[in-house]
Amino acid sequence: MEIGELATRWTVRIALALYAIALIMRLNARPRPARLLWTLGFTAFAIHAACAFNFYHHWSHAAAFADTARKTAAVTGLDWGGGLYLNYLFALVWGVDACWWWRNAAGYAARSHVIEWIVQVFLAFMAFNATVVFGHGPIRWAGAIATIALLAALADAARRHYRSPNSESKS
After folding, report:
1. How confident is residue 160, by pLDDT bands cut at 50, 70 and 90?
2. Which of 23, 25, 135, 151 supports an S-S bond with 30, CB 3.0-4.6 Å?
3. Distances from the Cα of 6 to the Cαs of 2, 10, 43, 89, 91, in angstroms?
């Protein structure tokens, strides 16, 4: 395996591992270390995107679009490269989210639950598709295990929220 392939694969693996760990920490009320891991995860993802564009697509959007279409057709039968735009949106949403958290932690923590759910559902959907739907071998299993761990952490956080004496004042 060449350096470009190693860098591209491992930066996304690190990014998604940090993503999952940061979410679990957030759900367990550990915002400060979660924020750092969230930001490091985004940084690893940005490096992954740069590696993919450099080593695989030679900085060509058209080449990346065609490769996305080919991979989508192989998995779904649909020859569509539009998933590349979803990857761009994924990077934008995660990056803006990380910046918001650093720039205004109090405002970030108090943001609407609707915004929080839209962000987290979109990021989770993309991570699930990247690992479980389009992944192969150990990556598919790691994605499935991470999804189960995140769902368990979410269920536990919801259980704690609704059983707490102050749950009426939380919204």
Report:
1. confident
2. 25
3. 6, 6, 17, 24, 20
Q: Given the structure tokens 């539009």, which residue do they identify?
A: 82
Query: What is the model's pTM?
Result: 0.89
What's the pLDDT at 164?
66
- Give the length of the chain: 171
Q: Cα–Cα distances in Å, from 78 out to 54, 81, 91? A: 26, 9, 23
Structure tokens at 130: 């990247």
| Residue whose entry in the numeric block shows the structure tokens 């695989």 | 56
pLDDT mean across residues, the chain: 93
